[in-house]
């Protein structure tokens, strides 16, 4: 599965891992949001790594398939309703912010109905650089790489790689312009 080869999604080992992950997600989503310590314990178990080196928030509800294929850098924040189908690795760099109702999907299902009905799948990894912001409702599809210092506009469907240093929007998502110094807010402006 992780190697990007055909696998059987009904394999007993995968089903057991999926069931464990879904149970942890349910526990996480049912915690009181102010219970930061308990949320951290579950996220660390789910992602199978400790997150002591920086801010890491998955605002409930959060769902993933396995968890162990999700890697997040420092200063990660996701708003409500993040779904990560991590049949392959989904890697986020540092300073990544994900708006509400976003999805990162690595699974690829056969187009042929007979093959699809057997439960076979493929998966391709998703890689997200550092300093990336996803607006609400963004969908990122299998095999996509997004560079550093990128803004993906709300509602976009990312089907191809996005280079560093751009604002990208649409369905399919495409770069519309470079990010420049002119994009900095004037924090001394009383109107903002």
UniProtKB/TrEMBL annotation:
Highest taxon of the lineage: Bacteria
InterPro entries, sorted: Hexapep, LacA-like, Mac_dom, Trimer_LpxA-like_sf
Domain Maltose/galactoside acetyltransferase span(s) in chain numbering: 1-52
Enzyme class: transferase
Alphabetic keyword roster: Acyltransferase, Repeat, Transferase
SUPFAM superfamilies to which the protein is assigned, alphabetical: Trimeric LpxA-like enzymes (SSF51161)
EC number: 2.3.1.-
Similarity-based family: Belongs to the transferase hexapeptide repeat family.
Protein name: Acetyltransferase
Organism: Ruminococcus intestinalis
């Amino acid at each position: 599965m992780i190697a990007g080869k055909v696998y059987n999604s009904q394999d007993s080992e995968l089903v057991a891992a999926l069931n464990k992950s879904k149970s942890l997600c349910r526990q996480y989503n049912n915690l009181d949001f102010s219970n930061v310590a308990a949320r951290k314990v579950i996220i660390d178990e789910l992602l199978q790594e400790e997150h002591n080196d920086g801010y890491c928030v998955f605002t409930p509800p959060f769902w993933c398939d396995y968890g162990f294929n999700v890697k997040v850098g420092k200063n990660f924040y996701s708003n409500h309703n993040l779904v990560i189908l991590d049949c392959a690795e989904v890697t986020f760099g540092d300073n990544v912010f994900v708006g509400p109702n976003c999805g990162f999907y690595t699974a690829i299902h056969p187009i042929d109905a007979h093959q699809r009905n057997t439960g076979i799948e493929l998966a391709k990894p998703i890689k997200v650089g550092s300093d990336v912001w996803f607006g609400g409702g963004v969908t990122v599809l299998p095999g996509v790489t997004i560079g550093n210092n990128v803004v993906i506009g709300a509602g976009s469907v990312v089907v191809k790689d996005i280079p560093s240093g751009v604002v990208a929007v649409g369905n399919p998502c495409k770069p519309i312009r470079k990010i420049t110094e002119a994009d900095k807010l004037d924090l001394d402006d009383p109107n903002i």
